[in-house]
Amino acid sequence: MKEDTSTPAREASQAEHGTLVEVGLSLEDLIRRGARDLLQRAVEVEVAEMLAGFAPVRLLDGRRAVVRNGHQPEREILTGVGPVAVEVPKVRDRSGNGIKFNSALVPPYVRRSVRVAAALPWLYLKGISSGDLGEALRVLVGEAAQGLSPAALSRLKAQWGEEYQAWTRRSLAEEAYAYWWVDGIYTPLRGSEDPRLCLLVIIGVRRDGTKEWVAISDGLRESTESWLDVLRDLKARGLSVGPRLAVGDGALGFWGALAQVYPNTVHQRCWFHKLGNILNALPKTWQTKAKADLQSIWMAPTRAEALRACDRFVARYQAKYPKATDKLITDRDALLAFYAFPAEHWVHLRTTNPIESTFATLRHRTTRTKNCVTRTTFLGLAFKLAEEAAKTWRRITAPKKVMELLGGTRYENGVAAVDSPPETKQQQELHEEQRLAA
Question: Which domain holds residue 350?
Answer without folding.
Answer: 179-416
